[in-house]
Write a structure and sequence with these properties.
mainly alpha
């Protein structure tokens, strides 16, 4: 029998391995995207440096191990560890040395994965509320360190660049400007570094929350005629500026984005690899936000619009349909949690868009519903998005305040 210390270490190693296998069930690193590969490289080392991160990782790994082996005791213990990880994180934040560690930055991300996979509650917003609270905590930790802190070394820079896209989710849900759109946060983390192509795309996306805020004011705020027209012209100008930014970004490396030759109900979109798939869907999502906002600012009513094209600009509907037809690709078992993490946010916002005029896209919505019926990760994404849906007003997409959820 192993000594207790060694047995504990071996068991911890096994549960961390179970966690990492969720990202790549086949154990093949090429089945993960850039974000997941960075986590693969750093998590085994950093999880030994802080108890909160170790507990969070063990909570996910042990719960998953219990599910895959049919061991209910392991699953219960994993859930208990989740609660302990919450308490340990709160304690760590009170300790300046721990609060400023790299290890603690990863904890909210790991806890969010636990919520997404195992936090489902029927007819409840609790799952999404918990995920959002972890995202808010992660954002607060990033802001407290300031933008220059994330140029200091490769690990800190990686944490920031992989977190930024994920944390735009809550900002887009809130439909309010994000601090990541400030110039300092678009430049200082890259001090002395070359900005990657995918980072430049996220730079553009950082303007989406403010754009949605403007569109909401146009639709729902009580404005006099002059103020409304000023806001409409400002919004149109912002949309066209973003359009040309996207065009310039895409033309710099056209091969980085996959464009299917055609899109219909019967053909699942496939991609050359998971990295191109993730970048492409991010691009499509930005296009969906941008061109649906441009439609509204141009006076087009999305609840009665059935068209697929415009003479002078792209129409948002084809981007929504391409995201729908990509679900099966991302939900392949070989991609594990990588596929779920990459697809839930684009798909959720696609369904929000399609819900405005269900008749126009009902058949595409049905294809998603069929994919969701599959067990494991597809059904996990379904339950998470159902919970997330309860956090907004479905008529206006206005967010419900977290304390009210």
């Amino acid at each position: 029998m192993l000594p207790q210390g060694l047995a504990k270490a071996a068991y911890s190693e096994r549960t961390v391995a179970a966690f990492l296998e969720m990202y790549s069930p086949a154990g093949t690193i090429r089945n993960t995207n850039v974000d997941a590969r960075e986590l693969f490289n750093l998590l085994p080392l950093l999880s030994t440096r802080d108890e909160a991160l170790q507990m969070a990782t063990l909570a996910v790994g042990m719960t998953q191990l219990g599910i895959t082996t049919g061991n209910a005791s392991l699953t219960r213990h994993g859930r208990m560890l989740y609660g302990k990880a919450l308490k340990e994180t709160a304690m760590a934040l009170q300790n300046p040395a721990r609060a400023n560690s790299k290890s603690l930055l990863i904890v909210p991300r790991i806890m969010g994965i636990f919520d997404m996979l195992y936090g489902a509650e029927p007819d409840s917003s609790n799952q999404a509320k918990s995920w959002l609270s972890h995202a808010e905590g992660e954002l607060a930790m990033i802001i407290s360190r300031g933008p220059e802190a994330f140029a200091a070394d490769d690990a800190a820079h990686m944490f920031f660049t992989t977190a930024r896209y994920r944390l735009l989710g809550p900002a887009i849900r809130a439909r309010k400007p994000t601090i990541f759109d400030a110039q300092d946060w678009k430049t200082l983390p890259w001090k002395g570094r070359t900005k990657l192509y995918e980072d430049a795309l996220v730079d553009i996306m950082c303007g989406i929350p403010e754009l949605l805020w403007s569109v909401d004011k146009l639709q729902f705020a009580s404005l006099d005629t002059l103020d409304k027209e000023k806001l409409r012209l400002h919004t149109l100008s912002k949309c066209w500026t973003m359009h040309f930014q996207l065009e310039s970004w895409k033309s710099a490396d056209p091969d980085s984005i996959y464009t299917p030759t055609f899109v219909d109900l019967y053909t699942t979109i496939s991609f050359p690899n998971i990295d191109i798939a993730c970048l492409t869907v991010r691009y499509w999502l930005i296009c969906l936000f941008l061109y649906s906002s441009l439609d509204i600012a141009s006076g087009i009513d999305p609840t009665s619009d059935y068209s697929l094209s415009h003479p002078d600009r792209p129409h948002p509907r084809p981007f929504a349909r391409m995201i729908c037809r990509s679900v099966d690709y991302f939900m392949q078992e070989k991609f594990g949690v990588t596929g779920l993490s990459a697809m839930w946010f684009p798909l959720g916002n696609t369904l929000f868009y399609m819900n405005r005029n269900r008749d126009a896209d009902e058949a595409y919505i049905i294809t998603v519903m069929k994919a969701w019926e599959r067990p494991k990760l597809p059904s996990a994404m379904r339950e998470f998005l159902k919970s997330f849906r309860t956090t907004v007003d479905m008529k206006t997409l206005s967010p419900r305040p977290l304390p009210e959820l």
